[in-house]
Amino acid sequence: MGQLLNVNEYVAGIKSADISILSRAITLCESSLPAHTEMAQQIINQLYGLSGNSLRLGITGVPGVGKSSFIECFGKHLVAKGHRLAVLAIDPSSSISKGSILGDKTRMEELSKLEQVYIRPSPSSGHLGGIAKSTYQTMLLCEAAGFDYIIIETVGVGQSETMVHNLCDFFLLLMLAGAGDELQGIKRGIMEMADSILITKADGTNIEKSKLAQLEYKNALHLMPATESGWIPEVLTASSTENKGMDAVFNLIERYKNFSVTTGYFKQNRQRQKVALFKELLQQKIVDRFYNEHRQTLAKTIEKLESNEMDLIEALNLNASLK
Questions:
Q1: pLDDT score for 16
Q2: CA distance readout (Å), 26 to 31, 39, 103
Q3: Cβ–Cβ contacts within 10 Å for residue 97, how many?
Q4: Residue 103 main-chain phi, psi, to 5 deg
Q5: What are the respective helix, strand and coil percentages of the chain, to the nearest 5?
Q6: Given this model, what pLDDT does residue 2 score?
C-alpha cells in the first residue's frame, strides 16, 4: 500500500482525479484493519457530496459468455461518446491466498490503456451477492473522482449473486445462443431482475442461433411478472469481435435512464438500494465481528470437529450461544 497519506491528502487527490491516490484509497476500503477502515470512512464522508452523479451499469452472465470482451468493446464506445468510465471487476477469490483469480485488467488490455478509463479488479473474498464487500465504497470514490459511468462486472450468474442489483441503475444480463439452456429455470430469478438481455457472440455461423435465442428470450420475458419500474425489458444481440450492437445497447440504456428519471423510479430505486445494502452490509459486519471476538473458541471447536471429538450439531448448538 505504501506510506499512508492523511485524510485531506486522499480527498484532494481524488478530487483532482489522481488515479494513484484513488487506487490507494480503494485499497484502504478493502483492508480489514480497523485503522484503515476508519480512515476510509472519513475520506468517503468528505467526498460523499460529490458521488451519485454516474450511471451505474451492472453486468452479469455465465462464465464464457464474453463479459470482459463486451465491456472492453462497449467501454471504448462510451469513451468515444465522451464518458469517463470506471470498471469494477469482481473476481472469484482464491481459497488459499484470498486474492483475485481472473485478473480482468489483463483481459481488457486495450481499454485499460485509455486515459478516460479506470479498471479495478477486486477479489470477492467469499462474499455472497457477487460483489466485493468494498464495492459500494469503491463506486462512491470513483464517482467523486469524476467517472460518470460505472460498470460493475460480477463473477457469474447464480441466486447468491443478486446483490449487484442493489448497486446498479441498469442491470444487463449477457447470454449465449445455442447453449441449450436458454430457458433454464435456474436463471428465472436473474431474468426477472434484468432490465435488458443481450445475446453475445452474434457473429459468423452463430448469427441465426442468436436471432432464434433473441426470439425465445422475448417470449420468455412476456411470461415474467411486470417490473417494479414499469419498464419493459428488451432483448438485443451484439458481437464484441465485430464491434456490432454497441450503439443499440447504449441507446437502450439512455432510453431507460430517461424513462426512470421521468417516472421518478430512478431516485426511488437508489433510496431503496441504500436500505437493502445497509441490511446486507450490517449482517456482514455482525458476522465478521462474531468471528473476530470468538476466534479462539471457534478454532478449538473446529479442531474437535476435525478429530471427531464433537458432533456437527453439538458444535453448532454450543457456539450458537456465544455473544
A1: 97
A2: 9, 11, 17
A3: 9
A4: 65, 65
A5: 55, 15, 30
A6: 60
State whether the Cα torsion 156-158-161-164 is positive or negative. Answer: positive
Strand-pair partners of 45: none
Q: What is the pLDDT of residues 216-260, one digit of tens each?
A: 889 888 888 888 899 999 999 999 999 999 999 999 999 999 999
- Angle, helix 7-15 to helix 19-30, in steps of 10 degrees: 130
Distance separating alpha carbons of residues 73 and 282, to the nearest angstrom: 36
Backbone angles phi, psi at 109, to 5 degrees: -60, -45
What is the DSSP code (8-state) at residue 244?
B
Query: In the 8-state DSSP scheme, what is residue 201?
Result: -
Whether 157 shows a pLDDT value over 80: the answer reads no
Q: With H, G, I as helix, E, B as strand and everything else as coil, classify residue 138.
A: helix
Q: Which three cell numbers stand for residue 135?
A: 464495492
As given in the structure block, the three cell numbers for residue 240 are 464484441
- Containing H/E element for 197? strand 196-200
The pLDDT assigned to 72 comes to 96
SS3 261: helix
* pLDDT at residue 223, as a whole number: 81
54's grid cell: 454516474
CA distance 125 to 287: 14
Cell representation of residue 206: 452463430
CA distance 260 to 286: 35
For residue 101, the model assigns a pLDDT of: 41
What is the spatial distance between Cα 10 and Cα 16, in angstroms, rounded to a whole number? 10
Residue 182 · residue 175 · CB < 8 Å: yes
Helices assigned H by DSSP within the chain: 7-15, 19-30, 34-47, 67-80, 104-107, 109-112, 135-144, 188-193, 207-222, 246-263, 265-293, 295-306, 312-320
